Amino acid sequence: SQTIHQWPATLVQPVGSPLSLECTVEGTSNPNLYWYRQAAGRGLQLLFYSVGIGQISSEVPQNLSASRPQDRQFILSSKKLLLSDSGFYLCAWTGLAGGSTGELFFGEGSRLTVL
Amino acid sequence: GQNIDQPTEMTATEGAIVQINCTYQTSGFNGLFWYQQHAGEAPTFLSYNVLDGLEEKGRFSSFLSRSKGYSYLLLKELQMKDSASYLCAVDPGGSYIPTFGRGTSLIVHP
Fold first, then answer.
1. Contacts of A99 in chain B (CB under 8 A)
2. Tens place of pLDDT for every residue, chain A, 115 residues?
3. What whole-number distance in Å separates Cα of residue B14 and Cα of residue B107?
4. Does residue B98 sit at the A interface (CB-CB below 8 Å)?
């Protein structure tokens, strides 16, 4: 069966510090991968998505970046965090390519607080 | 553009029925998802509607009207554990980037 894990679960970082959140999927190949952010009381905002190794699309211009060094690994990074980067970050995958449909499977989430 | 609207908050009594509405205006439409999200947790899949009509899954049902750009999630025999946020999401087809509404926070009280 397929599983998705992301870490760390919780982190508190000072403004200006770097960030690295990691997500891995097991039990499937060539998944579509997504990073979403959910601010308090708000919906899910798509940050990045990837349809393959090294293929990253950004939905929102900001100080975050994403990378996909391996088929089932997706990393969210920042060189210098801002206060506005605080939120609940969710990695997700789906096994279907463009034009098809399928539900998203989410990781456990990473709660980031920037002070 | 994408526009998905759902009420911010709803309250209901344990054992009752509640209907959570979602309207959408999107540049593409292939189907509509409903997810449940408990506080501090990740969303989990509830339903997916492609065709018009009602689909039932135990205590939860989901309805879609493509011509009206409208869906609802119906929860019957409410339980306290149903207190959660319910997210409506449109599958636009094409590049497959689901777009989420802001979610409806449902509070079930005794």
1. 93-94, 96
2. 788 999 999 999 999 999 999 999 998 888 999 999 998 777 899 999 999 999 999 888 679 999 999 999 999 999 999 999 999 999 999 875 443 457 889 999 999 999 9
3. 10
4. yes
